[in-house]
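STRUCTURE:
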């Protein structure tokens, strides 16, 4: 069968690649065309990569408005490419602003639509539930609390676990020793590590990394290390941290988290990754004031950390925008570093979270279910 997959950011590329491996296991003759990144290209072939997500990375309300002509052009390009490819199914991965428009388009053209990693409608834009109900044939979710949420709103959603567990397990099996990791990444330093995850977009990094670098100066007994993303040059990070003592690794986030005593994270998927790995963390998040003020009006959630949302209470401290001050950050980081008063309780909570999320194998279970549904529909599709 022919699968057209759209992932618009780094996390979607990761989950898309694992999903594609699972699809191939259950449908060895599967053919792919996709919007994604290097991980998906490694599975489905670079020649089948229609658009790289690095060209889609527009962040915040201001960024979207500024790049609106580009976004509209990409929508037109994607629609034309879908029709040219004529897939059996369109698989949409997160990225709702773009993907819900593609769901409506594909549904109108008679193409089956699967949505993998549901839009966070429980946080904002709950009106999107109607779009999911109308244009999506099957919804696959990755957070346990979403089962009841969607059921109450008349959307049949399937939970098979969280694919992050799969990726963490796979990377752990190939993880080098701490000594080798340090040597490979030019971190010849005896000090314990603290990971800095400033985001995957330029704007996130611009707003948050300077604060993180300043925080590092307050803890000279630790080696702070930036987790860089491969689609941004190191020079962009160096321009922010200057000649400070902050280290840098690229595309080695899981390894860095595993060998770090704590992590300072902007938000998003990384907060759950750190918890599943077992690295105590704190959230420091800042963006432009326009986006933040709008967000405060429309967001319906108590927390921005996935850890806190899944546990439905504060496990990880969140320092957001105006609350993100150096004295608070210093105090919280001390509390979660070895010997800190909050460290052991946080690690206990992380163990509870892992039990809630469930075991590894989610990507294969979701892929198998997708193939099963398509096989059931095959007479109709042909």
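SEQUENCE:
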């Amino acid at each position: 069968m022919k699968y057209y997959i759209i992932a618009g950011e780094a996390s979607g590329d990761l989950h898309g690649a694992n999903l594609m491996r699972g699809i191939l296991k259950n449908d060895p003759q599967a053919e792919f065309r996709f919007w994604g990144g290097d991980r998906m290209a490694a599975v489905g072939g670079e020649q089948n990569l229609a658009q790289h997500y690095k060209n889609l990375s527009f962040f915040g309300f201001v960024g979207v408005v500024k790049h609106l002509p580009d976004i509209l052009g990409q929508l037109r390009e994607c629609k034309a490419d879908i029709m040219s490819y004529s897939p059996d199914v369109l698989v949409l991965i997160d990225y709702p602003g773009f993907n819900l428009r593609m769901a409506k388009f594909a549904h109108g053209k008679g193409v089956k639509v699967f949505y993998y990693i549901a839009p966070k409608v429980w946080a904002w834009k709950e009106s999107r539930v109607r779009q999911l109900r109308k244009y999506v044939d099957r919804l696959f979710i990755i957070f346990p609390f979403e089962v009841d949420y969607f059921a109450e709103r008349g959307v049949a959603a399937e939970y098979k676990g969280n694919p992050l567990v799969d990726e963490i397990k796979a990377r752990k099996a190939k993880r080098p020793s701490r000594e080798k990791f340090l040597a490979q990444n030019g971190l010849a330093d005896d000090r314990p590590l603290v990971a800095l995850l400033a985001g995957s977009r330029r704007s996130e990094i611009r707003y948050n990394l300077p604060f993180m670098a300043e925080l590092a100066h307050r803890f000279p007994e630790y080696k702070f290390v930036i987790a860089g993303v491969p689609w941004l040059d190191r020079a962009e990070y160096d321009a922010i941290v200057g000649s400070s003592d902050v280290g840098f690794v690229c595309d080695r986030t899981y390894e860095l988290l595993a060998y770090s005593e704590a992590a300072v994270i902007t938000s998003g998927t990384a907060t759950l990754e750190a918890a599943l790995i077992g690295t105590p963390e704190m959230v420091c998040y800042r963006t432009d004031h326009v986006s933040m003020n709008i967000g405060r009006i429309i967001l319906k959630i108590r927390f921005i950390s996935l850890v806190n949302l899944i546990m439905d209470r504060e496990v990880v401290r969140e320092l957001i925008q105006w609350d993100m001050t150096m004295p608070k950050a210093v105090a919280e980081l001390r509390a979660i570093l070895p010997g800190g008063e909050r460290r052991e309780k946080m690690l206990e909570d992380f163990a509870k979270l892992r039990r809630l999320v469930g075991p590894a194998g989610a990507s294969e279970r979701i892929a198998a279910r997708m193939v099963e549904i398509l096989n059931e529909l095959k007479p109709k599709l042909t």
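REMARK: DSSP finds 18 helices and 13 strands in the chain.
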